[in-house]
Design a protein that fits this description.
The structure is a homodimer. Chain A has a three-stranded antiparallel beta sheet with strand order 1-3-2. The first copy, chain A, has a three-stranded mixed beta sheet with strand order 5-4-6. Helix content of chain A is 38%, strand content 21%. The first copy, chain A, is of the alpha+beta class. The radius of gyration of chain A is 17 Å and the shape is globular. The first copy, chain A, folds into two domains: 100 residues, Orthogonal Bundle (Arc Repressor Mutant, subunit A); 56 residues, Dna Ligase, domain 1 (2-Layer Sandwich). Strand 6 of chain A pairs antiparallel with strand 6 of chain B. The first copy, chain A, binds a DNA duplex through helix 4.
Amino acid sequence: MKDPCPQHAHRHRLIQPALNELTDQLRRNARKITAPRQAILNVLRRHQHPLTNREIHAALSGFECDLATVYRNLNTLEEMGMVRRFDFGDGTARFELLIEGDDGHHHHLVCTQCSTVVEIEDCFPAELETALARRHGFKHISHKLEFFGICPKCQERGRS
Amino acid sequence: MKDPCPQHAHRHRLIQPALNELTDQLRRNARKITAPRQAILNVLRRHQHPLTNREIHAALSGFECDLATVYRNLNTLEEMGMVRRFDFGDGTARFELLIEGDDGHHHHLVCTQCSTVVEIEDCFPAELETALARRHGFKHISHKLEFFGICPKCQERGRS
DNA sequence: ACTTGGATGCAAATCAATTGCATTAGCTTC
DNA sequence: GAAGCTAATGCAATTGATTTGCATCCAAGT
């Protein structure tokens, strides 16, 4: 099978979890294995970069389900810790499938012109974050971090 | 005049720009000095922490203007670089007045229970960001970074 | 004072996301 | 394998933030 998403070939982690592993996770969480659910997981499994609800809905190959069902499922999948929600500040949430055992913590570099997404390995330094929490007396601290810029291709286009 | 916003007394930078400095900035940008505009700037000037359009609209003391006007003004003020837009991921934008000459770059620590906001001095290390941009060939790189956690007061409340 | 284009008010439209409700269909139990 | 319970779904309507069309108004320049 060829890469389902060539423009995101630069993504590092390209493990495709087997579908039955995913359904097992559902079972363990006392969730029913429904057709929409499986179709959605299949889409997420094949496109391992942040997808909007709408994109997921559009990518449901063959099988159709209501957009509201996609929204509902991504919310429950997030609660279950099977997907991670990202916010690129454009008003629509994006989701990525998580690999079991991996908390999926990572960030993105997004092109402000063509929306190309690169997965980033860097993260805000943990010791700074800990110090920050202590300094202000906060507990259970976390962060949202995304980078924005102009990708190489759009720089080319700009010059032409 | 007492602090207009006691629960944000921990905010460090509490310079209140004079209203006429702000109107000067408008003039320099060929913007008309209108009553709604001044009222909005006045609100931002008095409450130097992130405010939603709705909050700003509600805080317009005495003077009333349409909510759409608030939205339009914050967009133009953002274009002019007089305010900075923040996104805490709750679906509504927040704005802070910028001090002239300061690019206003900073981040926040937000309580996920009571929404208390603390301004943060830390930032993602510039050298890491530069390296990141170079590594992926991106230009004009920037980032969005916000921290979330449980504030001291809510920790108390939780225990009781 | 006169003119003009930006600014405003008001209502309607968008757009993402959620929700109420009747119906359907997994999954457990017998 | 049928019965029963409840989650899950489809569909339509709703919410909430934000934008926009349009007629009117007014700040600023001449």
